[in-house]
């Protein structure tokens, strides 16, 4: 058999910037939300950003989901990005524990053309996931990292046969290569990534996009 040298990883210095420069930018309507997030909220780096937003929109556009669950609203960026790509009749439930962040998100959702498609559920995302009626067509997991496996299990239970789960930050800025770290979020992510790749119920691909996005689908 011919020996083929695998392609090298593209995650070289400057590649993320190049990817962002060659990705459709956020619409102007998102400027107010992003500015307010940077000016008034803590941890603005939690915004998933334009590359992830375009990826989510592309998936939503292709899947044409009727029900999307956004686990981790923050200021509403991922929910509003996905809402813009929903098919007619599609809706999003977005989950946020923190009342202050939920308040910012609610204002921006109400001011958007997508208010009728987005329900903001305040409280623990696990409770919201268990209270919602499925099937879920698309689930974006981007809340507290230590609970990813619980979110995954709860989402999978109600996932449509052709549904998809996307999980953000599965590379933890490369820290997953250091599983002995003291950081509980990174240790949980290592355990989560190992559990998912060994789970016979699903097939997954970990994309080294920005901070890592894992796409997980059920197998029959
Ligand atoms: C990384 S941010 C979400 C970013 C957002 N998806 C975006 O793209 O801009 C994570 C959010 O999850 C929220 N969160 C943390 N634990 C939660 C829980 N148990 N239930 C619901 N939300 C939670 C945090 O308050 C935070 O706003």
Topology readout:
Blueprint: H1 15-21, H2 31-40, H3 49-63, E1 67-71, H4 77-83, E2 91-96, H5 99-111, E3 118-122, H6 125-131, E4 136-141, H7 148-157, E5 159-168, H8 184-197, E6 202-207, E7 213-218
Parallel strand pairs: 1-2, 1-4, 2-3, 4-5
Antiparallel strand pairs: 5-7, 6-7
The protein binds S-adenosylmethionine.
Q: Can you put this structure into words, describing what you see?
A:
There is one protein chain. Helix 3 (49-63) packs parallel to helix 4. 38% of the residues lie in helices and 20% in strands. The protein has a single domain (49-218), classed as Vaccinia Virus protein VP39 (Rossmann fold, 3-Layer(aba) Sandwich), CATH 3.40.50. A seven-stranded mixed β-sheet has the order 3-2-1-4-5-7-6, with helices on both faces. The chain has 220 residues and is α/β, with parallel strands linked by helices. It is globular and about 60 Å long. The longest helix has 15 residues, at 49-63. Helix 5 (99-111) links the parallel strand 2 and strand 3 (118-122). Residues 46-48, 72, 74, 77-78, 95-98, 101, 124-125, 142-144, 147 line the site of S-adenosylmethionine. S-adenosylmethionine binds at residues 46-48, 72, 74, 77-78, 95-98, 101, 124-125, 142-144, 147.
